[in-house]
Automatic annotation (TrEMBL):
Protein keywords: 4Fe-4S, Iron, Iron-sulfur, Metal-binding
Entry protein name: Molybdopterin oxidoreductase family protein
Domain Molybdopterin oxidoreductase: 68-500
4Fe-4S Mo/W bis-MGD-type domain boundaries: 3-61
Claim: Iron is one of the keywords in the record: yes
Source organism phylogeny: Bacteria, Bacillati, Actinomycetota, Actinomycetes, Micrococcales
Organism, as annotated: Gryllotalpicola reticulitermitis
Ranges where the Molybdopterin dinucleotide-binding domain occurs: 601-706
InterPro entries in UniProt: Asp_de-COase-like_dom_sf (IPR009010), MoPterin_dinucl-bd_dom (IPR006657), Mopterin_OxRdtase (IPR006656), Mopterin_OxRdtase_4Fe-4S_dom (IPR006963), Prok_molybdopt-oxidoreductase (IPR050123)
Statement: the UniProt record of this protein carries the keyword Iron: yes
Length: 721
């Protein structure tokens, strides 16, 4: 029996795994004739309150052998894969890495990490890239996820921790405004923390669709605003304008704790309610109701991917922060701003060095003192550390290009199915095909692995030790319940073996507890300081019913829970003040209030309850696949009628980037100018064939949430093919 946490999202619901004893049929899924080696039961924990979603309940299914990669695989000249010995696979990788480095320099080798990796693996991956490969080119899928909110948090507060307060603080809220976030589908047990606000009539949901979460506002529980996709920045500037114009702001807080109010006030002055209504479609009366409600106190503003995954995502998150700041909500015990971190370790994964510009402890790789500190922990000279790399989308744009001109020739992938989840996947596919070496470490054979030269099998969550940091910055223990398949090897071991073959400096421990101790040292004094923690300390905290929130510095008392609530006494800028950053609306958004041209619709993308991300894992779980076997395009019935489409009709979506085939499903709650497609599916159903690689210039976040598409009926042969 082991106490651990769910393998999927950042809520990290607590669960207990009980190995199935031989001869018992507890773990046997009779419907699907698959044996899961453990049974999952939810554990009482503040975040999930004993709840799990469908994905958590079925997570053990994937531990069963069918569908898993259990041997190293090497691509053969005929394109097929053959099982190989570890030594042969590692030698082949080392040889090609050495060759690429010798011919084109270290930056011809790149690493792509993931927000699902434990802290230990994320930390070691950053160290491995900088020391063993000597490359600056490491980035990860968190770029697609948290980068805009992180950039906004860093510039406003000097620090980025998704929720700077406990999840359970939300229970006391009078008002919770969810801006582009659909937790009823993406973190179901989280909705328990929305109950208080609902009872107070104060759940505000901002989403172009009537989502499961938006439905929670019905019957007097709150308000649903449906702005045109990509106009949230205008809406937030308008709300800020209103609270200033109606003198609802907290002047004392603004004066004592922030900088930049005068410029902010000027920047919102042109966003009067009628103008905001014409751009966003949100009626003036609703804008006023929301502004006044937020000003009544006890309010939390939470952003999600719906507003962050835009070319102006950083500015939109900034506008949400500004609104929270002028209302005096941030750092108080009674209100705040937060972003809903997505992946299992989306928080820790962005703290310990797998981001292009970052060293462990959320240190900047350009900061000389940070370089000196981390180099000393690693036992190398600071000059040997490469400088900042480039963000994920830019990195993928260099795949397969000539190495002599800065192209990437070798790519190591740890924890991302980037061929499904990246923007403009047609271009990504071409880039991957042009590489000298693609290595994918995974436990499932996903779409990206199918293009690899070498696939290396790694253990899964229930088979490994480590730590994860949840959406509120709470460090959790992942504990192994069962042994991995005989031929799977931990990524810590893989990195150690490759480091040795590449004559890397420093030491390469393979025990997660030892790696954690090194991470703790490397993070000491940094923003995300874990120096007071160890696996043993975390286990003791858990046993005593105490949490551990970072920063958790060395020397913390036995009773300490670290820092559950940030910013109570000051912000992380040297002067302790938050920055109100005046942001502008891009002209193309302000000038085209009517949305796309007549024959086009705005395409937004996102998630379904039963699938996770690229679907690499959940499409293999029969129960989840049966519930949602294909990508369905949500379309308003009136729009469908205009296009001559019946419910269930087969359609083609197209734009200059590619085309997708799928069927439609009527969604009376979506804006008529907007259609929605989930991104959990591959091949002809892969929505990222239609998504441009255009990115936010500050964060590098791709515009996943606003594309223009033409939708037409697929008829005859095409429809039945
Ligand atoms: N079931 C499930 N749960 C998950 C995941 C999963 O893949 N599946 N992934 C996890 C991860 S990594 C993440 S990042 C989180 C994401 O969690 P969420 O942010 O809740 O998920 P999304 O569905 O991507 O986007 C949220 C909402 O944004 C809306 N939206 C789209 N465009 C706009 C816009 O322009 N403005 C506004 N206001 N809203 C818009 C969509 O309609 C959608 O309902 O979920 C986590 N949990
Ligand atoms: N159109 C559109 N595209 C999107 C989004 C969107 O809303 N719309 N959302 C974006 C967001 S927020 C995210 S987070 C990304 C996520 O998209 P991806 O990066 O593709 O994430 P996953 O599908 O979770 O793929 C993770 C892979 O890593 C494997 N894995 C899990 N744990 C480990 C481990 O410990 N080690 C190794 N080596 N492998 C592991 C899993 O089996 C799986 O194959 O997608 C982005 N793409
Ligand atoms: S809400 Fe997230 S952490 Fe909880 S069971 Fe579902 S996927 Fe797992
Ligand atoms: Mo994400």
């Amino acid at each position: 029996m082991s106490d651990t946490h769910c393998p999927y999202c950042a809520l990290q619901c607590a669960m207990r795994l009980t190995p199935v004893t031989a001869g018992s049929d507890d773990g046997f899924d009779k419907l699907n004739h698959r044996a899961a080696p453990v049974t999952v039961s939810p554990r009482e924990f503040p975040t999930n309150r004993g709840g799990l979603c469908r994905k958590g309940w079925t997570s053990a299914e994937l531990l069963a052998r069918p569908g898993r990669v259990v041997h190293p695989l090497i691509r053969q000249p005929d394109g097929s894969f053959a099982e190989a010995a570890w030594d042969a696979a590692l030698e082949l990788i080392a040889e090609r890495l050495r060759a690429a480095r010798a011919t084109f320099g270290p930056d011809a080798v790149a690493v792509f990490g993931g927000g699902g990796l434990t802290n230990e693996k994320a930390y070691q991956l950053g160290k491995f890239a900088r020391l063993a490969l000597g490359t600056s080119r490491i980035d990860y899928n968190g770029r697609y996820c948290m980068s805009s909110a992180a950039a906004a948090g860093n510039r406003a507060f000097g620090l980025d921790r998704g929720l700077p307060f406990r999840v359970t603080d939300l229970d006391e809220a009078r008002t919770i405004m969810l801006i582009g976030s659909n937790p009823a589908d993406t973190m179901p047990p989280f909705t328990r923390h929305l109950e208080g606000a609902r009872e107070a009539g104060g759940l505000i949901v901002v989403d172009p669709r009537q989502t499961t979460t938006a439905k929670l506002t019905q019957d007097g529980a709150g308000i649903h605003l449906q702005p045109a996709p990509g106009t949230d920045l205008v809406l937030l500037l308008g709300l800020t304008h209103l609270v200033i114009a109606e003198d609802l702001v907290d002047r004392a807080f603004i004066d004592a704790r922030t900088e930049g109010f005068a410029a902010l006030r000027r920047s919102v002055s042109q966003w009067w309610p009628e103008r905001v209504a014409s751009v966003t479609g949100v009626p003036v009366e609703l804008q006023r109701r929301v502004a006044r409600r937020l000003a009544e106190g006890g309010a939390y503003l939470l952003t999600g991917r719906g507003v962050e995954q835009h070319v102006d995502g950083t500015d939109t998150a900034t506008a949400a922060i500004n609104l929270a700041l002028v209302l005096g909500l941030v750092g108080s015990a009674d209100g705040g701003y937060g972003t809903m971190t997505g992946q299992g370790n989306g928080q820790g994964g962005r703290e310990h060095g797998q981001k292009a510009d970052q060293l462990p402890g959320y240190r900047k790789i350009t900061d000389l003192a940070a370089r000196a500190h981390v180099a000393a922990v690693w036992g190398v000279e600071p000059e040997t550390l490469p400088g900042p790399g480039i963000p994920a989308t830019e990195l993928l744009g260099l795949l397969g290009r000539p190495g002599a001109r800065g192209g990437v020739r070798c790519l190591l992938v740890h924890g991302s199915n980037l061929l499904v989840s990246s923007p403009d996947v047609n271009a990504v596919r071409a880039g991957l095909a042009g590489l000298d070496l693609l290595v994918v470490c995974d436990f499932v054979f996903n779409e990206t692995a199918a293009l690899a030269d070498v696939v290396l099998p790694v253990p899964q969550w229930a088979e490994e030790e480590g730590t994860m940091t949840n959406l509120e910055g709470r460090v959790l223990r992942r504990q192994a319940a069962i042994a991995p398949p005989a031929e799977a090897r931990s990524e810590l071991w893989i990195m150690a073996e490759l480091a040795r073959r590449l004559d890397a400096p420093s030491t390469w421990p393979t025990d997660p507890a030892v790696v954690f101790d090194e991470l703790a040292l490397a993070s000491a004094g940094g923003i995300a300081d874990y120096s007071g923690l160890s696996h043993a300390r975390l286990d003791a905290q858990l046993a005593a019913g105490r949490a551990a929130y970072w920063p958790f510095a060395a020397g913390a008392t036995d009773e300490s829970e670290g820092t559950p609530r940030l910013f109570a006494d000051g912000f992380a800028h040297p002067d302790g003040r938050a920055r109100l950053v005046a942001v502008k609306v891009r002209s193309e958004i302000a000038d085209v209030p009517a949305g796309p041209a007549d024959d086009e619709l705005t395409l937004i993308t996102g998630r379904l309850l039963g699938h996770y991300q690229s679907g690499a894992q959940t499409r293999l779980v029969p129960e989840l696949l049966e519930a949602a076997p294909e990508a369905l395009l949500e379309i308003h019935p009136a729009t469908a009628a205009r296009l001559g489409l019946g419910d269930g009709a087969a359609v083609e979506l197209s734009n200059e980037h590619g085309r997708v085939e799928c069927r439609v499903v009527f969604a009376p709650g979506i804006r008529p100018d907007t259609v929605f497609l989930p991104f959990h599916f591959a091949g002809d159903e892969s929505v990222n064939r239609l998504v441009a690689a255009a990115c936010d210039p500050i964060s590098g976040m791709p515009e996943f949430k606003r594309s223009r598409v033409r939708v037409r009926a697929l008829t005859g042969e095409a429809a039945t093919a």
